[in-house]
Fold this protein.
Amino acid sequence: MNRRLVRSVILPLHERLCGRKTFRFFDDLMESQWWSAEATRLLQTLKLARLLRHAAANIPFYGEIFQELGISKDDDPWSILARLPFTDKSRIRENFD
């Protein structure tokens, strides 16, 4: 089978039918490898901020930690990450429910 046909039509169609985004992520990575360090850091900061907001809003364990540490959604995401305690098995077991 023609490689170009497989890469440009068949595999993307299969990924879409399966609900995957593999090729979108691949294309994003191919483009972003040429970005400047500043652009890469900005994307990392935005994604980290989104992850932390999600954790605070949807995971009671992290919501409580954010409250205890006085972390607000407007704080710098890197400083929030540095302030979060490590999560180990004993902490997970204590907060399982």
In short: The chain has a mean pLDDT of 89. The CA atoms of residues 35 and 41 lie 10 Å apart.
